[in-house]
Amino acid sequence: MTRTFHALALVPLMLAVLAGCATQSKPAPVGLLDVVSRPAERALQGGLRAYDDAQYADAEKQLNQALQAGLASPRDKGAAHKTLAFIYCTSKRLLECEAEFRAAKQADPTFALSKSEQGHPLWGPVYKKTQ
């Protein structure tokens, strides 16, 4: 009788656990074609490509468009702000550079420059001011 009672007492707990598992489904993975069909993400991709190609004016324009269009991911927002900060620091617009580093951290609380990026002579000191 005692074993039956203990087993029956566990039934509600087991049902609650199973119900919790059933309601927690993972979101569907996002494919590359889904991402590039979004205007903000497409502008981010174009801005990063332009930056890599040393087309800084075009990169600045596209990165700002990406932010204005509403990037969905905090990490993407952080990357856009970081790249804008690099552009501003290298063109001696230090106040804008600092503002972009602050915006990157606000958009993505996990944002941080790598050790090598922190040691850069142009944007490293500005980034350190924002920490």
One letter per element, helices H and strands E, the order comes to: HHHHHHHH
CATH class descriptor: Mainly Alpha
Q: Look at the helices and sheets and give the structural class.
A: mainly alpha
Mean pLDDT: 86
Major beta-sheet overview: none
| CA-atom Rg in angstroms | 23 Å
CATH fold-level label = Serine Threonine Protein Phosphatase 5, Tetratricopeptide repeat
Number of strands: 0
Low-confidence stretches: none
Question: What is the terminal separation in angstroms?
Answer: 64 Å
How is the secondary structure organized here?
Blueprint (H helix, E strand, L loop, with lengths): L1 H22 L8 H5 L2 H14 L3 H14 L4 H17 L3 H14 L7 H4 L5 H6 L2
Written description of the protein model:
The chain is mostly helical and 131 residues long. It has a single domain (34-129), classed as Serine Threonine Protein Phosphatase 5, Tetratricopeptide repeat. 73% of the residues lie in helices and 0% in strands. It has 8 helices and no strands. Helix 4 (56-69) runs antiparallel to helix 5. The chain is globular. The mean pLDDT is 86.
Short description:
The protein has helices at 2-23, 32-36, 39-52, 56-69, 74-90, 94-107, 115-118, 124-129. It has 131 residues and is mainly α.
Features:
about 130 residues; mainly alpha; Serine Threonine Protein Phosphatase 5, Tetratricopeptide repeat
